[in-house]
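seq:
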Amino acid sequence: MAAPKADIDIDRSAGDFSYPEAHTFDAGTGLTAATVDYISKVKDEPEWIREFRQKALEVFNKKAMPTHWATKDLDNIIFNNIRYYLSRGQKPSRSWDDVPEDMKRTFERLGIPEQERKFLAGVEAQFDSEAAYSNIKKAVGDQGVIFVGSTEGLKEHPEIFRKWFGKVIPTGDNKFSALNSAVFSGGSFIYVPPGVKVKHPLQAYFRINSENFGQFERTLIIADEGAEVMYMEGCTAPKFETATLHSAVVELVALKGAKIQYVTVQNWSNNVFNLVTKRGLAMEDAEVKWIDCNIGSRLTMKYPGVVMKGPRARGEVISIALAGNGQHQDTGAKMIHAADDTTSNVISKSISVGTGRATYRGQVLVPKHLKNCKNNTECDALLINPTSRTDTYPAITVRGAKNAMQHEASVSKVSAEQIFYMMQRGLTEGQAMSLTVNGFVNDLVRQFPMEYSVELKRLIDLEMEGSVG
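struct:
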C-alpha cells in the first residue's frame, strides 16, 4: 500500500525548477546609492524610509566582512554581481486566480494552495522581491489580526509598523543586517491584537526564481498583550551555477503575556548563501520560541535570539541542521537575559553527511545584577562519515551568583556494528541509517507541526541513501 502524500513537500529536488524572467522593475547589478533610491522610488516609499535605507548603505560600506566565521565561503559573495530588486510591480493578489500564470504554477508545484485550504489561517507567497499572493481567513481578519506584506504594513499601518521597525535588530547589528536595511523588500508584517489567540498557523513562502539574485525580505511580527500566534516559513530556489544571496531580517515583539512561535524549514538549493539575522523581544511573562530546521544552502549563518526584557519572560530555540556534501550549516542561538526570573532553553542537533560541516555557535548572557535566571543548553552532533565535520562554540557568560546554568554537548559517530545488526534483521543499509538518524532527532521533530515533521523524516530518508561507504 502506497504511503499517503504529505501536505508539504520539502524534497530538495522539488524546488529545482524555474520559469523565464518577466520583470517590469530591475535595479540591475551592483549596490550604490542610486540602487537604493531606485528601490525606494519603485516602491513609492515615504522619505523617512529612503533616508533609513541610505544611512544603512553607509553602515554596510563601513562594516568589514566577518573574519572569524566561515571566512573562505564568504569570499565567494561578490556584492557588485548581485541584482538587488526584481519585480513586476504587482500588488499581492487575494485570489489564486489573479496570480500571474508562471508564479501560480510555481506555488502550485510547491503545494501552497493545498496547505492554505487544509490547515492555514493565512498565507503569503513571495516571488523574488515582492509578494505575489497574500490572504488571511475572514474569521481571523475579523478578530483584528493583520497579516500583510511588509510594503503594505508600512503604508497601511504606519502607527504600528514604525514603532517597532528596526528596534529589535538595529541597522548596525552586523554587516548583513545593514545590507538588508538598505535594500529590503518583501517579507511579512503581522499584528495580533490583545488577547487574540490565532488557532491555526500563518505561513509565508519565499521563492527565488532568478539567477544572480539577492532576496532581502524584512519580517516584523507583533503579538500584543496576551496574544498568541504561530508563523511558519518555507524557502526554496532552483539550483543555478552562480551564487545567490538570501539575507533576511526578522524581528519579533511579544508584549506582556504574549506567545510567538516561529517555525522555519529552510531548503534552499546549494548555491544559496543564507545569511539571516533573527531576534525576538519578550516582555513580562511573554514567550518567544524559534523552531528552526536548516537543510539546504551552501552556507547558512543564522543564530535566532531572544532578549528576555521583562520579568518571567521565556526564550527557546529548537534547531536541527543537516549538512551534506559541500554544505556548511553554521547555526546556533543567542539568549540575552535582561530581567529577573527569566528562563531560556537551547536544544540543537546536527547531522553531518559526506563532506558536510555543521557548526553550533551560541551565546548566553546573564548580567551581574540579575537573579533567579535559568538557562539550559544542549548541543548534540552526529557524524555519518569519516570526512564529516562538526564544531561547537558555546559562549556562556553568567556574572551573578543567584542564577542556574547547565550545558551539555556530545558528538557521536554512527556505529558500523549497529548498522550491521539492523541489516541482519532485513533492513537495507540506507534504511538502517535513516532509522539511526531519525532516532537521533526524533525528540525535536515531534515539536514541529505535523505537516513539517512528516516531510523532515522523509527528507532524512532521502539524504541517507548511499551515505555510508
